[in-house]
Amino acid sequence: MSNRWNISRRTALKGLGASLALPHLDIMSQTARAGDVAGPPLRFLAVFQPNGVYPKAWDVTGEGSDFKLSTILEPLAPVKDDLVVVSHLDNVGTNGHVQMTGSFLTGVAMNGKLHAQSLDQMMAKKVGGQTNLPSVVLGTEPPRQGNAGNNPISFANTVSWASPTTRVSPEINPRVAFDRLFRNQASPEARRQNLDRKSVVDLVLEDAKALKRRASSLDQHKIEEYLSSVRSVEERIEKSLNPPKKSWVPPTSPELVAPAAGIPRRRDEHLQLMIDLMVLALQTDTTRVGTLMTAHGFSRQNFSFLDGVNSDHHGMSHHKNQETAVAEYTTVSRWYIQMFSGMLQKMKAIDEGNGSLLDNSIVMYGSGMKDGNGHVRENLPILLAGGGQGRIKTGRHLVCPEHTPLSNLHASLAEKLDLGPDSFSGKTIADL
Question: H/E/C letters for each residue in 93-125?
Answer without folding.
Answer: CCCHHHHHHHCCCCCCCCECCECCCCHHHHHHH
